[in-house]
Design brief:
Blueprint: H1 8-40, H2 43-46, H3 48-67
């Protein structure tokens, strides 16, 4: 068995101090994380039913466009820019 310097009481004090030091670092971090999570929770982000309905409507809209047979932008005038024309000169 290895021999450690100091008495058992000294070792306990050392460990207790290390625990207190770690807690002094972690407590503010945990509080900050809890604060950020609370700030991120809004009626919009926590209401799963509304989000699901919104996504369902968007999906239905996309599927309706796909079924219409026309690609997006069909029937609109093409850009003027001389596509396919050789330069004159």
């Amino acid at each position: 068995m290895a021999s450690y310097p100091g008495t058992q009481d000294e070792q306990r004090e050392l460990v207790d101090q290390a625990i207190l030091d770690m807690q002094s670092v972690m407590d503010p971090l945990n509080a900050a994380i809890a604060e950020m999570l609370a700030a991120a929770e809004t009626a919009e982000t926590t209401d799963d039913a509304a989000v699901t309905a919104k996504h369902g409507k968007a999906k239905a809209d996309r599927e309706a466009k796909e079924k219409s047979g026309k690609p997006e932008g069909a029937g609109k005038p093409a850009d003027k820019g001389g596509k396919g024309k050789a330069p004159r000169g």
